[in-house]
Amino acid sequence: NYIIVKIKLARKKRQFSLYPGKVPDWLQGEIIRNGPGEFDLGEEHFNNWFDGHALMHKFKIKERKVTYQSKFLKSVFYETNLKHNRIICGGLGNNSIPDPCLNIFSRIILIDVVFIQWMAYSFFPKLGDAFYRTTTCWICIQVRNLIDPENLETKNFVDWNKLISVPITTAHPHSDHNGDYFNIGSSFGMKSFYNLVKISSKHMSGTDPMQEIEVIGKIPADPLLPSYYHSFAMTQNYIVFHEMPFLIDVRKILARTMTWKKGLDCFQMDETKKSIFHVINKATGKRVEINYSADPVFCFHHINAYETADVNGNHFIVMDICCSTTSCLGGKSTKEELKENIKNLTVDVRPMRYFLPLTFDGDGVQVMPDSTARATPQEPGSWFLEPHAIITNEETTLARIGAMDLPSINYAHYNGRKYKYGYFIGNSGFVPDSLVKVDVDTGKKIVWREQNKFPSEPIFVPRPNATEEDDGIILSTVISNLPEEETFLLILDAVTFTELARAEVNVKLPYAFHGCFV
To answer: What distance in Å separates the CA atoms of residue 414 and residue 356, rounded to the nearest whole number?
Structure first.
């Protein structure tokens, strides 16, 4: 059952082997991942995990054989630092280095380039003939990197401002079941807005659908302290945007043109502010005139959301998110401080369920059926939300799994619809060390873990013609901290969470964040 294949990596031939097991015959395609891959330049190093130069990875599965290749993203950030063999463009954890030959406008542009890299480890859905590498950032001149999925070459840069005056967008856009594309982005000035942007499905057959993007709705934002955000929720009829109290200080961003301080200095968590949830009608782009608030939480990733009704005919949105009471961006400034932080790390990211009443007939607190989630009426048209913990806070459970994030679902069939299963990474320490399958209705779970193994975001691939939601495969790239152990692509049966096979790679790979399967 061993298969030996030769592939080309970094201009050298590499030997890779398939762990004893069986790759399903129907599993044909490519998993492409993105994540930080280089942290040291000359004698300098990046101090934040999100700042490393982006390295793209591709595992190709064909006829039960697996090959691998990787390439650095040739961003302006990467090219500038490589040219000088030092950190010119910093990021969240490093100061940037000013060029005295640049005028103030050019410095603003270079500051913006710095922010292109961090948090830049997601992919848009495939649009036309290529992928767009996307980012969550604050920038005035936004670009998207067009990636050739065949050879991972960086084809060109797309100036976002030439398409639409929305310089910041989430790293996790949504593709609707009818083929429409949605994202949330911010525009700034004397009047600032959170914008709902869309590409209609009728443009998806073109070579570059991104040229057809348009703004279909706006929500006013604080011009000086707008919310940071990384993702959002979508149902069949609505978009739900989480305006959280983790704020971007616009004044400090502008001051960076002179001070060149690291990006983390420009953010703040205001625990006196509530989390606000905005519900937007997808068809009209109009905000639903109901106000929803909750205790302050930080959220990178939404899991899923859907619409439902109770026995009395009251309609509401169920929204599941991975949230924490603190920011998850990190912020240690030296290797020694980072190591100490890892030893003492306590993380509380958990999958939580909120419900947002849309129509209601009655008075008093509304309780979601089969859940502890509550909605308490405030003034007319306003609700205060209390979430339900999808995973119970049993001490033994938390010690075993730790924080849970990087969620995945059967996206193709259940995004925006009622669903049952979510797949997560579990962090009992600083680096994820387990994969967790969760029944989001009951909280029951199955865990995959091996000692000294650190899996990446689980990606679900449905079996063709499957009739059950979890009938498919989970793919995850797994690394080890032991020099004698190989990195491998893990292939799990999504129903039982048992291993089917692993494709080992005899080169050391860095930890990859997000990815997609095609």
So the answer is: 19
Tokens linked to 125? 């859905």
Length of the chain: 518
Token reading at 28: 């044909």
Q: Which amino acid is at 410?
A: N
The pLDDT of residue 506 is 82
Query: Does residue 357 sit within a domain?
Result: yes
Instruction: Give how many domains the chain has, as a whole number.
Output: 1
Q: Find the DSSP H helices in 163-310.
A: 250-259
* Three state DSSP letters for 196-226: EEEECHHHCCCCCHHHHCEEEEEEEECCCCC
Q: Tell me if 388 is assigned to a ligand binding site.
A: no
What percentage of the chain exceeds 90 in pLDDT? 38
**Could you tell me if residue 1 is inside a domain?**
no
List, for residues 472-498, the tens digit of each pLDDT value. Answer: 999 999 999 888 888 899 999 999 999
Question: What distance in Å separates the CA atoms of residue 210 and residue 439, rounded to the nearest whole number?
Answer: 36
231 vs 509, more confident: 231
Average pLDDT of span 3-23: 49
Residue 174, marked binder: no
The answer to whether residue 281 is domain-embedded is yes
Residue 131 domain boundaries: 18-517
301 is in an annotated binding site: yes
Amino acid at 325: T
- Residue 45, annotated ligand binder? no
> What residue has token string 């026995």?
311
Residue 98 has a pLDDT of 59
